[in-house]
Amino acid sequence: GEDVEQSLFLSVREGDSSVINCTYTDSSSTYLYWYKQEPGAGLQLLTYIFSNMDMKQDQRLTVLLNKKDKHLSLRIADTQTGDSAIYFCAESSGYSTLTFGKGTMLLVSP
Amino acid sequence: EAQVTQNPRYLITVTGKKLTVTCSQNMNHEYMSWYRQDPGLGLRQIYYSMNVEVTDKGDVPEGYKVSRKEKRNFPLILESPSPNQTSLYFCASSPGTSGSVGNEQFFGPGTRLTVL
Predict the structure, then answer these.
(1) Given an 8 Å threshold on Cβ–Cβ distance, is A96 in contact with B103?
(2) Which pLDDT does position A1 carry in this prediction?
(3) Quick check: helix, strand or coil at residue B96?
């Protein structure tokens, strides 16, 4: 089946930029998503990018998509301790069913 | 408030004792789904439903049943729970075919199930 891969852990200092990377295998992916899971909570959509875009910026978040390499990244500028969470990359090839990566735990230290 | 609710939030049970985890959404979404989250394995889809009376298996359906008799409800049934079903379960819903660009999935708060 289709696969989404992420690094499992990232540690940064407050104020630095964080970059979380993701690769996927489904060449027919239409949408790619970043979800955030805070401790004890469900997942919340952070941002998404359509497959015909290279970049999307939303305040402190920048999503880069390299469709040729099937590589997606999420950059968080000026990372805060409140950004500590698990970040999931997910892809969809058209309908609502998503394939999720295993999640990247981001730890932000003061 | 638009939301997905799950009950119970926490459940400890014993092997073989049938249980149901309820899921309800108030957003008139067509699509609903159940996931389980396990350490090191991420989220894996159990079952999903594209509309009333339409359900399909996800990646890990064994040992689970679902039903979709009404649009708003999508209960997850474990007829004979086993310890390997100890996990954190999430219900999610999405507008589906009538949905907005991106078809965002809205997640419930999760149900932590322990089977002894």
Answers:
(1) yes
(2) 59
(3) helix
Chain B's closest residue to A42, CA to CA, is: B109
Q: Is the distance from CB of B62 to CB of B47 less than 8 angstroms?
A: no
Query: Quick one: CA torsion of A49, A53, A58, A61, rounded to 10 degrees?
Result: 70
**DSSP code, position A82:** G
Alpha carbon distance A64, A22 (integer Å): 10
Round to whole Å and give the CA distance between B84 and B76. Answer: 16
**Residue B23 host element (H or E):** strand B19-25
How distant is the Cα of A71 from the closest Cα of chain B, in angstroms? 19
Q: What is the dihedral angle through the alpha carbons of A74, A33, A52, A4, rounded to the nearest 10 degrees?
A: 90
B77 touches chain A (CB under 8 A): no
What pLDDT, on the 0 to 100 scale, is given for residue B12?
97
> Residue B95's pLDDT band (boundaries 50, 70, 90)?
confident
Phi and psi torsions of B99, nearest 5°: -85, 180
A34 contacts A58 by C-beta, under 8 angstroms: no
Q: How confident is the model at residue A97 (pLDDT cuts 50, 70, 90)?
A: confident
Query: Where is pLDDT greater, at A25 or B74?
Result: B74
> How far apart (Å, rounded) are the C-alpha atoms in residues B54 and B30?
10
Task: Report d(CA A66, CA B47) in Å as an integer.
Answer: 31
- 3-state DSSP call for residue A14? coil
How many residue pairs from chains A and B have C-beta atoms closer than 8 A?
61
